[in-house]
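Human: I'm a chemist; would you kindly supply sequence and C-alpha coordinates for a protein?

Assistant:
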Amino acid sequence: MNPLQALIHAHLALTHESYSVLAARGGLSRQTVTALAKRSAMRSMPHPKTLEGLARGLGVETEVVVQTAASSVGWPNIPKPAPKDLVIGQLVQTLDQLTPEELAVLLATADALVKMHPTEGDTPNSSSVDNLARLR
Protein backbone atom coordinates (compact mmCIF):
# COMPACT_ATOMS: atom_id res chain seq x y z
CA MET A 1 0.00 0.00 0.00
CA ASN A 2 1.43 3.37 -0.96
CA PRO A 3 1.28 6.36 1.43
CA LEU A 4 -1.63 8.04 -0.40
CA GLN A 5 -3.65 4.85 -0.20
CA ALA A 6 -2.80 4.60 3.50
CA LEU A 7 -3.97 8.18 4.08
CA ILE A 8 -7.30 7.55 2.34
CA HIS A 9 -7.87 4.20 4.06
CA ALA A 10 -6.99 5.63 7.49
CA HIS A 11 -9.54 8.41 6.97
CA LEU A 12 -12.24 5.98 5.87
CA ALA A 13 -11.54 3.66 8.78
CA LEU A 14 -11.72 6.55 11.23
CA THR A 15 -14.86 8.16 9.82
CA HIS A 16 -16.68 5.05 8.50
CA GLU A 17 -17.41 7.00 5.31
CA SER A 18 -17.64 5.66 1.78
CA TYR A 19 -15.63 6.67 -1.27
CA SER A 20 -18.77 8.48 -2.49
CA VAL A 21 -19.05 10.68 0.62
CA LEU A 22 -15.35 11.52 0.53
CA ALA A 23 -15.56 12.29 -3.19
CA ALA A 24 -18.65 14.49 -2.86
CA ARG A 25 -17.11 16.58 -0.08
CA GLY A 26 -13.99 17.10 -2.18
CA GLY A 27 -15.81 17.81 -5.44
CA LEU A 28 -14.35 14.69 -7.07
CA SER A 29 -15.92 11.70 -8.76
CA ARG A 30 -16.26 8.46 -6.83
CA GLN A 31 -14.23 6.78 -9.57
CA THR A 32 -11.31 9.17 -8.98
CA VAL A 33 -11.25 8.55 -5.23
CA THR A 34 -11.65 4.81 -5.75
CA ALA A 35 -8.75 4.75 -8.23
CA LEU A 36 -6.47 6.68 -5.85
CA ALA A 37 -7.43 4.39 -2.97
CA LYS A 38 -6.92 1.16 -4.90
CA ARG A 39 -4.05 1.91 -7.31
CA SER A 40 -0.99 0.50 -5.58
CA ALA A 41 1.58 1.65 -8.13
CA MET A 42 1.41 5.37 -8.81
CA ARG A 43 3.60 6.33 -11.77
CA SER A 44 2.89 10.05 -11.78
CA MET A 45 1.44 12.75 -9.57
CA PRO A 46 -2.31 13.23 -9.74
CA HIS A 47 -3.52 16.54 -11.16
CA PRO A 48 -3.21 19.45 -8.67
CA LYS A 49 -7.00 19.97 -8.70
CA THR A 50 -7.44 16.31 -7.80
CA LEU A 51 -5.05 16.69 -4.87
CA GLU A 52 -6.86 19.85 -3.71
CA GLY A 53 -10.21 18.05 -3.87
CA LEU A 54 -8.86 15.05 -2.03
CA ALA A 55 -7.52 17.33 0.71
CA ARG A 56 -10.95 18.97 1.04
CA GLY A 57 -12.59 15.57 1.19
CA LEU A 58 -10.15 14.35 3.83
CA GLY A 59 -10.31 17.58 5.81
CA VAL A 60 -6.54 18.11 5.76
CA GLU A 61 -4.25 20.77 4.34
CA THR A 62 -3.52 20.41 0.63
CA GLU A 63 0.21 20.27 1.39
CA VAL A 64 -0.31 17.07 3.40
CA VAL A 65 -1.94 15.38 0.41
CA VAL A 66 0.67 16.75 -2.03
CA GLN A 67 3.54 15.48 0.12
CA THR A 68 1.85 12.11 0.59
CA ALA A 69 1.25 11.76 -3.15
CA ALA A 70 4.85 12.77 -3.89
CA SER A 71 6.06 10.11 -1.51
CA SER A 72 3.77 7.60 -3.23
CA VAL A 73 5.38 8.23 -6.64
CA GLY A 74 8.86 8.04 -5.13
CA TRP A 75 9.87 11.67 -5.45
CA PRO A 76 12.95 12.31 -3.34
CA ASN A 77 13.59 15.31 -1.10
CA ILE A 78 9.96 15.88 -0.25
CA PRO A 79 9.38 15.21 3.44
CA LYS A 80 6.55 12.96 4.49
CA PRO A 81 3.68 14.69 6.26
CA ALA A 82 3.94 14.90 10.01
CA PRO A 83 1.53 12.44 11.62
CA LYS A 84 0.33 15.27 13.88
CA ASP A 85 -1.00 17.15 10.82
CA LEU A 86 -3.01 14.13 9.73
CA VAL A 87 -4.47 13.60 13.19
CA ILE A 88 -5.41 17.27 13.53
CA GLY A 89 -7.21 17.22 10.18
CA GLN A 90 -9.13 14.08 11.08
CA LEU A 91 -10.00 15.41 14.52
CA VAL A 92 -11.27 18.75 13.21
CA GLN A 93 -13.39 17.00 10.62
CA THR A 94 -15.18 14.89 13.24
CA LEU A 95 -15.86 17.66 15.78
CA ASP A 96 -19.24 18.59 14.31
CA GLN A 97 -20.43 15.02 14.82
CA LEU A 98 -19.97 15.20 18.62
CA THR A 99 -22.56 16.25 21.18
CA PRO A 100 -21.79 19.19 23.49
CA GLU A 101 -21.15 16.72 26.29
CA GLU A 102 -18.72 14.71 24.15
CA LEU A 103 -16.94 17.93 23.15
CA ALA A 104 -16.56 18.82 26.84
CA VAL A 105 -15.05 15.40 27.55
CA LEU A 106 -12.69 15.78 24.59
CA LEU A 107 -11.59 19.21 25.78
CA ALA A 108 -11.04 17.97 29.34
CA THR A 109 -9.04 15.01 28.06
CA ALA A 110 -6.87 17.27 25.90
CA ASP A 111 -6.30 19.63 28.83
CA ALA A 112 -5.31 16.73 31.07
CA LEU A 113 -2.86 15.41 28.49
CA VAL A 114 -1.30 18.85 27.97
CA LYS A 115 -0.91 19.30 31.72
CA MET A 116 0.96 16.00 31.89
CA HIS A 117 3.60 17.53 29.58
CA PRO A 118 3.86 21.26 30.36
CA THR A 119 6.29 23.23 28.23
CA GLU A 120 8.98 25.33 29.83
CA GLY A 121 7.53 28.44 31.44
CA ASP A 122 3.94 27.18 31.38
CA THR A 123 1.88 27.12 34.52
CA PRO A 124 -0.93 24.62 34.97
CA ASN A 125 -4.37 25.98 34.08
CA SER A 126 -7.53 24.24 35.17
CA SER A 127 -10.05 26.53 33.45
CA SER A 128 -11.25 23.89 30.96
CA VAL A 129 -11.61 21.29 33.69
CA ASP A 130 -13.55 23.86 35.76
CA ASN A 131 -15.82 24.48 32.75
CA LEU A 132 -16.44 20.73 32.43
CA ALA A 133 -17.42 20.58 36.12
CA ARG A 134 -19.97 23.36 35.53
CA LEU A 135 -21.57 21.34 32.71
CA ARG A 136 -22.31 18.44 35.05
Summary: Residues 100-116 form the longest helix (17 residues). Residues 3-81 form a domain with the 434 Repressor (Amino-terminal Domain) fold (CATH 1.10.260.40). Residues 122-136 have pLDDT under 50 and may be disordered.
